[in-house]
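Morning run. Coffee first, then this:
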Amino acid sequence: MSDEQWERLEPLLPPLIGRGRPYLVHRAIVSGIVWVLRTGVPWRDVPDRGDLLCS
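And here it is:
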């Protein structure tokens, strides 16, 4: 995801600070979702390494 795309998406997400369990870094999560959708890999096969998800 490009920086320009992220700048458009970020304001639509909830704040990182809130009540209850804290959110993870949104960009890493969104990048992981995009990676799964692009590759067609099932969630159970997503690597544990975060570097693959942050492309």
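The chain has a mean pLDDT of 78. Good start to the day.
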